[in-house]
Each structure stands twice: as C-alpha cells, then as structure tokens.
Design goal:
This protein is globular. Helix 2 packs antiparallel against helix 3, helix 2 packs parallel to helix 9 and helix 3 runs antiparallel to helix 9. 82% of the residues lie in helices and 0% in strands. It starts with a helix and ends with a helix. The chain has one domain. With 206 residues, it is mostly helical. One of its GO terms (molecular function) is amino acid transmembrane transporter activity. It is found in: Cell membrane. Pfam families: LysE.
C-alpha cells in the first residue's frame, strides 16, 4: 500500500466520520443528557466497537454477515433495541427536578462506553461497509495483516476525532441549556435522540 493510497483512505475515513449516523446520534444523545464526560466515554466505546467490527470484517466475518439475512437482522435488532430501551428509559425517567437531581439521574460513563461498544460492534451496515469498501485499498502483493492493521487504526483514530467533535459540540450546547427549567427538556431530548438512533439502526437494510 503506497502513501497516496493510504492518504485516499484517510480522506474517505474523514468523510465517513463527518456523516451523521446512528453512532453519532447516540453520542449526541449521551452528551445532551449526561454531559461531556459521558459523551467522551461513549466516543471511546464507539472507537473500540469500530475496531472490533472492522477487524471481524477483514478476517471474513463481514462476508458471512452480508450473505446471511438472519445474521444481519439479529445484529441489527440487538443494537437497535439497546438504544431504544435506553432512550425510552431516559425520556420517561426524567421529570421536573432540580439540576442536582438531574445530574444524579445522568447515564454513567461506564454505561455509555459499554453501550457504544455494542452499537459499534452490532451495527451490521457498518460491517458490510468495511467488507466491501476497505479491501479496495489493500495491495495484493503486500502483507495483508499489516495493511489491515494500518487501515483499521487509521479509520478508528480519524472517526474517533470526528465523533469527539460531535460530543464536545453537543456538550457545549447542553451547558448553554443548563437552567433547571430547560435542563429537563434537554434530557428528554437526549432520550428522543437515542430512540431515533435505535430506529435508524433498525431501519438499516443490506
């Protein structure tokens, strides 16, 4: 793999990272509902999930998933139901409360991290993207494991950067809406965003 090929892949990764999808929606939801620390934890979880999904794709699991409608549906609904349940819980749990009470009800960084690991791993559309797109940047005459590792690290770091940008921007917006009479609606909005991310995942098709 030449430097120009790697650069083209890096540019494509930037574009992919900037396009909002269920992962970005989940990160924004965590940021609005629980703040910067939880949002950045969810970014870390998404990065780990992306790395696992991309690795599985490049060793051939993605091809099996792309060929199996049942496997695709199973993974799709695992990720979708997690986001929908968490979003509904956040929405209905929220009531008119003090800022301190809202802070206590915030989703923990650990929950956000583990949740987005699951979203990253179990989002089948992303796995299929990896298995169909990434191999085009691999030189058949070079070391496959080495090139696969370089592309995986490149993609995950770039997307982690764009995801962190979304997390910080949404966290900043949340801080502007931190008055007690507005915070409850911000938290409810975060639940709605998580539900929307789940619905988008459920709507994914091969």
């Amino acid at each position: 793999m030449t430097f120009s090929v790697w650069l083209a892949f890096a540019a494509a990764s930037v574009v992919m990272g900037l396009i909002p999808g269920p992962g970005v929606a989940a990160i924004v939801g965590y940021a609005l509902g629980s703040g910067r620390k939880t949002a950045l934890a969810s970014v870390a979880g998404m990065t780990v999930g992306n790395a696992i999904a991309m690795t599985l794709s490049l060793v051939g699991v993605g091809a099996l998933l792309a060929a199996s409608a049942l496997a695709f549906s199973a993974l799709k609904w695992i990720g979708a139901l997690y986001l929908i349940v968490l979003g509904l819980y956040t929405f209905f749990k929220t009531s008119r409360a003090t800022s301190a009470e809202l802070k206590i009800d915030a989703i923990s960084p650990r929950t956000a991290f583990l949740g987005n690991v699951a979203v990253g791993v179990f989002h089948p559309k992303t796995i299929i993207f990896y298995v169909t797109f990434v191999p085009h940047f691999i030189d058949a005459n070079g070391s496959y494991p080495l090139q696969a590792a370089v592309l995986t690290v490149t993609f995950c770091l770039i997307v982690a950067g764009t995801d962190a940008g979304y997390a910080l921007a949404a966290s900043a917006a949340r801080s502007l809406l931190s008055r007690s009479d507005v915070a409850v609606w911000t938290k409810r909005a975060s639940g709605g965003v998580l539900v929307a991310a789940g619905v988008a995942t459920a709507a994914a098709k091969t």
